[in-house]
Amino acid sequence: MHRDIAAALQFPDYYGHNLDALNDCLGDVACYGGYGDSAEGSGLVLAFTDYDRFAAACPRAAHVVLDIIADRARRAAVLQRRLICLVHSNDPDIRFDAVGAMPVLWNSDEWLDADRRGSAADPRHE
Fold first, then answer.
1. Which tens digits make up the pLDDT trace of 43-65?
2. Cβ distance 89 to 51 under 8 Å?
3. What is the per-residue pLDDT across 86-98, written as a single tens digit (0 to 9) for each?
4. How far apart are CA 95 and CA 99, in angstroms?
5. What is the pTM of this model?
6. Cβ atoms of residues 70 and 112 within 8 Å
7. Is 75 exposed, middle or buried (0-12, 13-18, 19+ CB in 10 A)?
């Protein structure tokens, strides 16, 4: 999988052939364009065929790859770029946990529960 993606997207020679390296290099391609790519108004479509074979052999990695792509697609959209992933499977029962989930975080002024709830003793909440 790493070899094929690295070749298809022309990842640099220092690509580490692991999921962290995939996240980093795919982020560069998705957000800033591939090597020789025009950044303005462009994007990338990834198409995986027979993904069920990869998922059967490496279930955790198959899920993480989809999660990385979902995260990178969201980040690319902020920069007005597109990243789309199409996944083909021969297994009609294939299932994956949710991908691309991002927690909703409290702002720094409300990080602690007490800061969100306020108190009569705290002048900031009067």
1. 788 999 999 999 999 999 999 99
2. yes
3. 999 989 888 888 8
4. 11
5. 0.76
6. no
7. middle
Residue 110, pLDDT score: 60
Strand pairing class (82-87; 43-48): parallel
Q: Please report the DSSP string for the chain in residue order.
A: -HHHHHHHTT--TT--SSHHHHHHHHHHHHHH--TT---TT-EEEEEESSHHHHHHH-HHHHHHHHHHHHHHHHHHHHTT-EEEEEE--S-TT------S-------GGG-SHHHHH--TT-GGG-
pLDDT band at 68 (very low <50, low <70, confident <90, very high): very high
Question: Cα dihedral sign for 60, 66, 69, 75?
Answer: negative
* 124 Cβ neighbours under 8 A, 6+ residues apart: 118
